[in-house]
Write a structure and sequence with these properties.
Helix content: over 70%
Order of helices and strands: HHHHHHHHHHHHHHH
Number of helices: 15
Structural class: mainly alpha
Shape: globular
Largest sheet: none
Radius of gyration: 22 Å
Number of strands: 0
Strand content: under 5%
Length: about 325
């Protein structure tokens, strides 16, 4: 065959190049991202005039389901072919986002203590939230923080864990959202494998891995924390109309701290493991927590919510 014809024939038969624009990552296409973004924007516009705390929860639900949709598309792009029922269960019947595990994994055996701990967290969290609702009238910020702590315990450590255990009892691999974060001795481990896996898993699969190939590990780390900051701005600063920049600053600070922990200086200080690592995790994650939930958010969103939901107004 003529060399020119051979070259042309090879060009025609060559499969089209998959680009970042045509297929973002793992089977996710631009239209999937646009659909996810459209859901969030649509919910924000549709809830105009609602109380700030209701708009916050509506946005949280919309964003979680947007991420779940992208993770489902990611799993399908990896060759998974689950039943329609299992896909719907993943989208609407579980709080997590790890589609690959939920759709194909085998559940680990359940220890009886897991049910007990989840129930204890649920009851304790509800008690703290109720206590916060009782004191917001006289100490708004303190009551708001007490209420937020209670909601995290009841939701992230209690209710969602009980739901995950119910799925595991049916043989479905539904990992918990929290993996004993208080035991973390590394800040990277805290954010990447222990705290709120509903964000950590998609952040790893959809953001960090593809970005690391372009920006390197450090650049991808900071980019992921920046995205986390912007997502928190959308459900904290946006409903409150106040505190802009503080959540993003908090998460960028976490990214810098993770990079320092992994640096030669951090290793020389004994960070990343042991008692020093644990103290570093607590200092970095909990110390500046008021950046994540600034006073304007507490007074504009949390206080009205606790007041509205208080079953025992005093």
């Amino acid at each position: 065959m003529n060399p020119l014809l051979r070259s042309a024939d090879a060009h025609v038969r060559r499969p089209p190049t998959r680009t970042w624009a045509s297929e973002l990552h793992g089977g996710i296409r631009p239209r999937d991202v646009l659909l996810a973004m459209g859901l969030c924007v649509g919910v924000w516009l549709a809830t105009a005039g609602w109380p700030a705390w209701l708009r916050m929860w509506a946005l949280v639900v919309a964003e979680v389901h947007s991420v779940k949709w992208l993770m489902l598309r990611f799993a399908l792009g990896r060759g998974e072919r689950p039943s329609t029922g299992r896909q719907l269960a993943f989208l609407f019947g579980w709080a997590g986002t790890d589609a690959l595990r939920f759709l194909r994994g085998t559940a680990e055996p359940i220890r009886p203590s897991e049910w007990a701990w989840a129930g204890a967290h649920l009851v304790t969290g509800m008690g703290l939230a109720l206590a916060g609702a009782q004191v917001v009238a006289t100490a708004p910020v303190a009551g708001a923080w007490l209420g937020m702590l209670g909601m995290v315990l009841a939701g992230h450590f209690g209710g969602t864990q009980l739901l995950a255990l119910a799925w595991r009892a049916r043989g479905v691999d539904a990992p918990p959202l929290m993996r004993t974060p208080i035991a973390a001795t590394s800040l990277a481990d805290f954010w990447g494998a222990r705290w709120n896996l509903a964000f950590a898993v998609p952040a790893r699969d959809l953001l960090f891995k593809p970005l690391a190939r372009r920006l390197g590990t450090a650049g991808a780390t900071l980019a992921v924390f920046a995205v986390s900051g912007l997502l928190h701005e959308s459900v904290i600063s946006l409903p409150a109309g106040d505190g802009w920049g503080w959540p993003t600053g908090y998460f960028l600070g976490q990214g810098v701290a993770v990079l320092f922990e992994k640096s030669a200086a951090g290793r020389a200080l004994g960070l990343g493991s042991g008692a020093r690592g644990w103290v570093f995790v607590i200092a970095c994650a909990a110390g500046p927590a008021w950046w994540l939930f600034p006073p304007g958010f507490a007074t504009a969103v949390i206080v009205p919510m606790l007041s509205a939901l208080n079953p025992l107004p005093l």
